[in-house]
């Protein structure tokens, strides 16, 4: 009996073992794929995290996940997919938070830091249709579904004969189901998400950067922790991909300078050329696509230079857009 009791206690102890790292994430298939990618990288980099039960994934439902019947712009836009996760982090319910960087507001909550970006996935947008090979082949009057004002404005700027169903929300699987049901004739999705979900067989064609400039930080995963948690900060430092971090910082400096409302289509992309320099492209547009303003910068691929480029590009477009352009 004594032996059996001790075994039972040992088994119970193993079951209730506290995880060394609790990862907070949204519950969509894509968010979970990003959380698992983070977990796998942590396990590979730190032997103590490779043990069973050392890492726990905690699913948190955000405002953006709860309200699917209204356009994002109507319910606040910024922070809709991060607020509840940030609160769980600050409350100590999780140790790190995994975010799609394009969902992260340009300001971080007090007492949190975001020291890590994983290697960036393909930043381009994918065109998906059952009836046309490309946007240019869609018949006049065709309906394209998207929840993104950035995609809508650039789409209508080039293809004025198309219509946009703009509250086309839901996860990747939901949007593809609506497409198959004939709700829309085509949709545009981030190629990065389709790759992370192993769903690229759904892609009809890929839009070039020139045809559809990506969202700021598209394709990048960011991982946050509390600013006083040195242990987590060290874990995350081992995963950080500096090339991605600098590009994202440049793009977010551009977005922060514009401080566009939730209804302002904004796009920005930083990358390095064959000589190792940073090339930045930025864009703002009117929601109906009638007015599109673009700019670009080139400079050293270094943090201070890239922050300066992003801010400078933002100031230029603010000046060119004039008063009222960024009002809700």
UniProtKB/TrEMBL annotation:
Keywords: Chlorophyll biosynthesis, Chloroplast, Plastid, Porphyrin biosynthesis, Transferase. Its cofactor is dipyrromethane. Pfam families: Porphobil_deam (PF01379), Porphobil_deamC (PF03900). Residues 21-233 form the Porphobilinogen deaminase N-terminal domain. Gene3D superfamilies: Periplasmic binding protein-like II (3.40.190.10), Porphobilinogen deaminase, C-terminal domain (3.30.160.40). GO terms for cellular component: chloroplast. The keyword Cell division does not apply. It comes from the Eukaryota. Transmembrane segments: none annotated. It is found in: Plastid, Chloroplast. Pathway: Porphyrin-containing compound metabolism; chlorophyll biosynthesis; Porphyrin-containing compound metabolism; protoporphyrin-IX biosynthesis; coproporphyrinogen-III from 5-aminolevulinate: step 2/4. Residues 246-318 form the Porphobilinogen deaminase C-terminal domain. It is an enzyme of class 2 (transferase). PROSITE patterns: PORPHOBILINOGEN_DEAM. This is Porphobilinogen deaminase, chloroplastic. The lineage of its organism: Eukaryota, Viridiplantae, Streptophyta, Embryophyta, Tracheophyta.
